[in-house]
Amino acid sequence: MKLTAKPQANPAVLQREAPEGEVVLVNLDTGASVALNQTGTIVWQMLDGQRTVEQIVTAVRQSFPDAPPDTVNDVSNLMDILAEDGFIGFEWPSNTIKNSKEHTK
Q1: Domains of the chain with CATH codes
Q2: Which residues have C-beta within 8 Å of that of residue 62, sequence separation ≥ 6?
Q3: Tens of pLDDT along 32-74?
Q4: What is the per-residue DSSP string for 36-77?
Q5: CA Rg, the chain, in Å?
Q6: Within the chain, what is the greatest distance between any pair of CA atoms?
Q7: Global confidence as pTM
Q8: CA 1, CA 73: separation in Å to the nearest integer?
């Protein structure tokens, strides 16, 4: 996943806290579900379509100063999984939409 991507949570996803401190997400569109640990929950809360993946990784590192150097890979992998199951989408720049329309003419 590109570090400049701006992932956004799917509004059709239901969120519930589990007894062990995890957060469980259920995609009401597809029925898919996933449990997030504390780090995954921080990532989930930041998926607003405004922050880039790079900004989210920086925030995770600030929340967990002892985070491993490959945190960027872990966050990116989590977002890939969330995207595959429809939990997140991406905010597209307006010029990308315009260019796509021009190619379909």
Answers
A1: 7-104 (3.90.930.60)
A2: none
A3: 999 999 899 999 999 999 999 999 999 999 999 898 889 999 9
A4: E-HHHHHHHHT-BSSS-HHHHHHHHHHH-TT--TTHHHHHHH
A5: 15
A6: 53
A7: 0.80
A8: 9
